[in-house]
């Protein structure tokens, strides 16, 4: 048998057709066994194209007279293989698009969680500042403390420090929130079918996260 592989992995093979013939064999014990078979070449050729097309020559029609049919079947198999290859490529692209979409959605959820965590951390800081403010107010209103040396200076200092402390804590928290909001907005604008753009953005985002951590 001779085999070839054409373009797009379309295989074609030529072989001599065989027939099954029952033969009688003596098992050397005086008993003839008529259930033995052998394969005998018929001398006629057959052509197999791909995995499903088989063209055989007959006594009345040799294989060379079927070349037109062989060529037509080969072209059909070639075109079918092209279609299958294209379909596999489309399915692979769809899978990658879904994977990138899920990856983007996961990153967005993580960043939104960071936004909430950032807000909660800032809220706790403000609560602590507000607690200190109430403490200073209570101390300031306590009778008799104003006569203690340095008390007035301490109260004046606390009045200056508290607003500054709030601002000092608020600015970075607000900056982190805005930075996360911008990244989330960009992520939501990404087209999952644009592999190059998505991969590039996610790669540089991972670098930024590693550098900031």
Key features of this structure:
single chain; 213 residues; alpha+beta; 2 domains; four-stranded antiparallel beta sheet; 3 helices; 4 strands; rod-shaped
Give a written overview of the molecule.
The protein has 213 residues and is α+β, with helices and mostly antiparallel strands. The chain folds into two domains: 2-90, no CATH class; 97-212. The protein has helices spanning 67-141, 151-189, 195-212, and strands spanning 2-5, 11-26, 32-49, 53-56. A four-stranded antiparallel sheet has the order 1-2-3-4. A hairpin with a 3-residue loop joins strand 3 and strand 4. The two termini are 65 Å apart. Mean pLDDT is 76; it is low at 1-5.
Query: Going across the major beta sheet, what is the strand order?
Result: 1-2-3-4
As a percent range, the share of strand residues is: 15-25%
Main β-sheet, in a few words?
A: 4 strands, antiparallel
Structural class: alpha+beta
The SSE string, one letter per element, is EEEEHHH
The count of DSSP E runs of length 2 or more, i.e. the number of strands, is 4
Label the overall shape: rod-shaped
Contiguous uncertain segments of 5+ residues: 1-5
The percent range for helix content is: 55-70%
Count of helical regions = 3
Number of domain modules? 2
Mean pLDDT: 76
Using only C-alpha atoms, the radius of gyration works out to 42 Å
Amino- and carboxy-terminal Cα gap:
65 Å
